[in-house]
Amino acid sequence: MESYFLDKTFLITGGGSGIGRATAQMLASRGANISIADVVSSNLENTAAAIKQETPEVKILTTLLDVRDERAVIDWVTESERQLGPIHGCLNAAGIAPLSHFEKSIEDTPMLDWERTIAINLTGVMLCMREQVRVLKKQKTGGSIVNVTSAAGCVGIENGSPYSASKWGVIGLTRSVAKETASAGIRVTAVAP
Description:
- GO terms for molecular function: oxidoreductase activity, acting on the CH-OH group of donors, NAD or NADP as acceptor; quinone binding.
- Belongs to the short-chain dehydrogenases/reductases (SDR) family.
- Pfam families: adh_short.
- Keywords: NADP.
- The chain is an alpha/beta fold.
- The chain has a single domain (about 10-190), classed as NAD(P)-binding Rossmann-like Domain (Rossmann fold, 3-Layer(aba) Sandwich).
- The protein is built from six helices and six strands; from the N terminus they run βαβαβαβαβααβ.
- The chain has helices at about 20-30, 40-55, 70-85, 110-140, 150-155, 160-180; strands spanning about 10-15, 35-40, 60-65, 85-90, 145-150, 185-190.
- A six-stranded parallel beta sheet has the order 3-2-1-4-5-6, with helices on both faces.
């Protein structure tokens, strides 16, 4: 198998479903070693099993992870590097978009909904990126970090202020960190599906 991704290591949050899972499967199919983290253990197990069935030669590490837990994020990144080798890229895809968040105007939005959405969708990305950047800078080989945001973060959506604000925050955070890390050869970008 000849591939740019062969034997390179990628870290993926939200790797148990959706964009995270699809990315993990695509990278593994090209020979990359994958560390996937997710908050739902059955999703992690299913993704790992699918990858192992399709590409048994790749190394895969699964970690049950709540991206709001600073210590757990640090441990995940550290253990990923220890077990899989130098990190080449990261995808921060963990996030929530509960339908109930799109049914309430700002005056009806419970503080708990706001805080949980910001904590997972924005603070979780910050915690992951902070540790990913530390490791990539220490390695001195550059790398790439991609954050998943949303068109809702660019334009706002009616009755969805917690989600829109969290995704707009990811855009601003991504732009700032991209400027901070460019001189170290670390590319930081966002995608807004």
